[in-house]
Specification:
- By secondary structure, the chain is an alpha+beta fold.
- The protein is about 20% helix and about 20% strand.
- The protein is built from two helices and four strands.
- The protein has a two-stranded antiparallel sheet with strand order 1-4. Strands 2-3 form a two-stranded antiparallel sheet.
- The radius of gyration is 10 Å and the shape is globular.
């Protein structure tokens, strides 16, 4: 599994991905999702929960 990446231009900072991440790897910083690659397991929960498809594996 690959780690998730955030498209900062597409991210709307809604926080849905942060709430969906079972590893606590996502935090909102300056209104954009930031993924801690050391915590991300590539499970895809954030990818499927993002309403604007700003996160990709």
């Amino acid at each position: 599994m690959s780690k998730a990446n955030v498209n900062k231009d597409t991210c709307i900072g809604c926080g849905v991905c942060e709430a969906s991440c079972p590893m606590g790897a996502i935090k909102l910083v300056d209104g954009k999702a930031m993924i801690d690659i050391n915590k991300c397991t590539g499970c895809g929960a954030c990818v499927s929960s993002c309403p604007v498809s700003a996160i990709k594996n």
